[in-house]
């Protein structure tokens, strides 16, 4: 029996999060066992869908750290995809500010050497802040594949609520490639 690969799919509260069910199905079709983690705001946005998303993945949807001594309800990750990753998430993660469960697990995944892909999702005004480029470079230097700019996510103008297209398929392709390279290494 072939062991399923486990993907931790982490999402921030940005409009592409509403597409997460189809992303989970796409990842499952690629052979991933998906565990869904959300920032607290993303969890609130998806609250009416959380039970259905848990049924779809076969795992509880998490947005909080477990208590010490509680069993882990997810299998260990083989890879992490953090998308959409908001301005706040990217900066918190790069700076090691791990108040949010998904940011903490993603930060720890760097230290564990897991394959990690992220797709930022922030408008053009946010990304002009000087910390954002520093944060993207920090994550890339730590080994995270950051799909941002040409060939990845290109920011939309401020005030546009929904990205013209979010590169979900590209993100899953990058996870597959990163995990395959990690397994070969």
From TrEMBL:
Gene3D superfamilies for this protein: Flavin prenyltransferase-like (3.40.50.1950)
Q: Name one GO molecular function term.
A: catalytic activity
Query: What domain of life is recorded for the organism?
Result: Bacteria
**InterPro entries reported in the protein's UniProt record:** Flavin_trans-like, Flavoprotein
Domain Flavoprotein intervals: 8-139
Q: Provide the protein name.
A: Flavoprotein
Protein's organism? Streptomyces thermolilacinus SPC6
